[in-house]
Design a protein that fits this description.
287 residues, mainly alpha
């Protein structure tokens, strides 16, 4: 339900909205900065594509949170696509950070001495992505379903296929040197083993983030009251056809409440209204 994705165990919906709005500003600033500098080269790197995914998710989540706090007739719907987007962003962001600082940080070391602006961009892209997603994951109540792990793995596989397509069809160089080593200089068996290890690592990282959401919910349930009146009220408004003309609630035929049958004494219908001083005389079993 949308209430789970636009509220928090620890802060008010308005506070969550302001935090997400601040993150949108950071994400959008970095995105514009990188596109202006890198141009089309920007879209080769997993770091940048995952940053775009975080930006799309955060814009939608911010809009949904704002609508949740306002009495507006238009409210966004949250569906499985955005659950997948959240799970992918929450998993790939820390993967990018770990891979970069473990294996690719030489570019940052060089940039510190030669190009301070580039060094700042590297810090933004490989630290803030994880920080933003961790804060949103821990503050919000967006769930991660175990079944979504397969969609996250497919996302990573799609990126690898995308880079191979760029190289083989368009002649665009590999975004990372280790990909050239894997796909051009290694035996097919080695490539297969590396791909299997990559899939397993992605699944393990997904379930680390999944465990964090469960821990968050466990701590939140201990802190929050069992009955969240604000959430209940918003759930009721969510079912209001006035606000949701296409909601599934309105697809069901409206049923009038059952009427209580009342027996009327026919003899009383012959009398004038002035004789009905006692209203209970209408009821047969009250004669």
């Amino acid at each position: 339900m949308i209430a789970l994705r636009t509220t928090s165990h620890f802060v008010s919906p308005k506070t969550l909205f302001l935090i997400r709005l601040f993150f949108v500003a950071l994400l959008l600033t970095y995105f514009i900065w990188e596109v202006v500098v890198e141009k089309l080269q920007y879209y080769r790197f997993l770091t940048n594509l995952s940053w775009m995914g975080i930006l799309f998710y955060m814009v939608y989540a911010t809009t949904a949170t704002y609508n949740y706090t306002q009495d507006t007739k238009y409210r966004v719907q949250w569906n499985g696509i955005f659950d997948w987007l959240f799970a992918s962003a929450a998993t790939i962001a820390p993967a990018v950070t770990v891979i970069y600082w473990a294996a690719l940080n030489s570019s940052f070391v060089q940039a510190v001495d030669s190009d301070a602006g580039f060094a700042v961009r590297l810090l933004w892209g490989h630290i803030l992505n994880t920080v933003i997603m961790l804060i949103d994951l821990l503050l919000s109540r967006v769930p991660m379903k175990a079944s979504t792990s397969f969609a996250v793995v497919l996302t990573m596989v799609a990126y690898v296929g995308y880079t191979i397509l760029l190289k083989k069809v368009f002649g665009i160089d590999w975004p990372y040197g280790f990909m050239k080593t894997i796909f051009e200089d290694s035996e097919p068996a080695i490539v297969g083993v590396i791909c299997v290890v990559g899939v397993i690592a992605t699944i393990l990282l997904f379930f680390v983030m999944y465990a964090l959401t469960r821990l968050r919910d466990s701590l939140g349930q201990k802190k929050a009251p069992k009955k969240d009146l604000e959430t209940i009220q918003h759930r009721q408004s969510y079912q209001n056809p006035q606000y949701y003309p296409n909601n599934s609630y309105t697809q069901r035929p409206l049923e009038a409440p059952p009427r209580q049958s009342v027996d009327v004494n026919p003899a009383l219908l012959q009398r004038s209204d002035t004789q009905f001083s006692d209203e209970s005389s209408f009821i047969t079993n009250g004669k």
